[in-house]
Structures are given as structure tokens and as C-alpha cells.
Amino acid sequence: MTHHNEENYYLNLKPKLMKDFMNVEDSMKNMLVQYLDQSKIDPLLKETRSQFETLLPTLPYVGGETNVLTDGLIMCAWCLPFFRALEREGLSLREIAKIIYEKMEHDVESKSAEKKRKVREFYFSPSMRTVEINRSKETKSGKYPGDWVSEYVEGDGKTFDFGIDFTECAICKFLEPHDALRYVPIFCLGDYATYRAFGIGFRRTQTIASGASWCDFRFKKDWETPRGWPTEELEEKFFF
Fold first, then answer.
1. Beta pairing partners, 150
2. Are 150 and 134 in contact (CB under 8 A)?
3. What is the pTM of this model?
4. d(CA 111, CA 97)
5. Is 226 helix (H, G, I), strand (E, B) or coil?
6. Residues ≥6 apart with Cβ < 8 Å to 198
7. What is the full DSSP assignment across 32-60?
8. How far apart are CA 158 and CA 138, in angstroms?
9. Which residue from 44, 136, 138 is spatially nearest to 91, judged by alpha carbons?
10. Most CB atoms closer than 10 Å: which of 6, 150, 155, 205?
11. 3-class DSSP state of 167
12. In this model, does residue 4 exceed pLDDT 50?
């Protein structure tokens, strides 16, 4: 991809992304009526959409479609104005986290059984390990400063099969200048929804968002991933 295309990556995706998030907004309305007066929901979502459009070209390029985590950054640009608007309406971080977790949980659980099977099989295959080892090398090269930085961790097959330590978080990097680091743990919760839905055994004890130096993702084929809500039942600590 040329440098010019990298600069315009998100703008080129804009028509599709705006359409996608219109669909997300439609599905959010039923959840928001539990917390907001009906008359406030459409204006709030319209404001979110407008600010998402403004934030989109400010996202750092981290490899585009070659980086599976790019979608997480795009979601972050939509969630930032959405979370701020909800806070302004008096919702707590805990209420916002519950709304987003349940939305993500619903979305991933609705994937087909075949899709879930294929993802689960790939995750514990030699190909997955190769992907993560190569990605670790690339992230540490500094090619994309706004990217996550990771380290592949080989397991012993008993305590865990393999792990990934994230020493830098792209979402933290993007949200810090916006004085919005308080929102990062909400995104971390989504990992539990995703891995649980796909039947991928996952554990984590700490994250950069919670003040640790790295996020310790650990995977084992025969683990049952815990549900991410309520957070009090998780091994790692969330402060909402």
C-alpha cells in the first residue's frame, strides 16, 4: 500500500463505515430506552455519527485490512463520542460498560456455528502461532507507531497453550490525547464476549488500561472462557 493510500485509508472506507454504524445505531436504540428518554436517543446518535465522521481521518494507520485489530480502532472512534454523550446524560461508566458489553456479546454470539468452528480451529493451529510470531516482529519494528505492540509467548500445554503479551495498546494511544483513558477498560471487556462466543479458552489477569505494564492474554483449548459481566467475577480487576 502506498503512503498516499495509507493517509486516505479510513476516508476511502467512510461510505461503508457510515452505513455500518447506521445499522449499529438502529440496534442500540432498544438498549438505550432502558436508560434514556426516547426523545433524547435519536439526537444523541446523530451527534455521535457526526463526531465519528470527524474523528475517522485522525485514526492512525496500523496496516489496514492486513491488521485484524484495525476494526477495534474504528470502533473506538465511534464509541468515543457515544460514551461522552452518555456520560453527559448522567450514565455511569458501569452503565456504559454494561450496554456495550451486552451489545458486543449479542453480536458475536449471533455468528454461525460454522464460523465459530473455523475460528476456534484456526486459533489453536500452527498457522495461528506463525501469524502471531510474525505480527510480534512487525509491531516491534516501529513501522506503525500507533499500533499495538505484542510478544508471542509459547505455552507448555499444561498451564496454557500459548499467550500474547501486549506491551503497547493502540486504543490507549488514541484515547489519551482526548483525555479519555477511562473508557479503555470497556473495550477490554469485549475480549471476553468474543473469545467466549467462539469457544476459545481465554484468561487474563491484567491490562495496560488497569495500570499494568502489559496485557497478559493466555489461551488454552480446554478452558471455558468466563462471561465478562459482571466484572466482579473476573480474575482481572475492573474499576466500574
1. 166
2. no
3. 0.92
4. 22
5. coil
6. 108, 111, 116, 119, 120, 123
7. HTTTS-HHHHHHHHHHHHHHHHHHGGGSP
8. 29
9. 44
10. 150
11. strand
12. no
Q: How far is it, in rounded angstroms, from Cα 117 to Cα 121?
A: 6
pLDDT > 90 fraction of the chain, expressed in percent and rounded = 90
Residue 180 to residue 112: CA distance in whole angstroms: 35
- Nearest Cα to 100, choosing from 193, 17, 171? 193
C-alpha cell at 181: 483513558
Distance of CA 140 to the CA centre of its chain: 20
Peptide bond into 230 cis (omega under 30): yes
CB 149, CB 135: distance < 8 Å: no
First to last CA, the chain: 41
Q: Hey, what amino acid is at 51?
A: Q
Residue among 131, 201, 139 nearest 167 (CA): 139
SS3 202: strand
Q: Which of 123, 110, 98, 124 is nearest to 197 (CA)?
A: 110
Query: Tens digit of pLDDT for each residue in 98-141?
Result: 999 999 999 999 999 999 999 999 999 999 999 999 999 999 99
Q: What Rg value do the Cα atoms of the chain yield, rounded?
A: 18
* Whole-number Å distance between alpha carbons of 208 and 154: 21
Cross-strand partners of 202: 219
Is a pLDDT exceeding 90 seen at residue 9? yes
Residues in CB range of 160: below 8 A, 6 or more apart? 203, 218, 219, 220
The residue among 213, 214, 204, 199 whose CA lies nearest residue 238 is 204
Q: 226 and 196 in contact (C-beta within 8 Å)?
A: yes
Q: List phi, psi (to 5°) of 162.
A: -160, 165
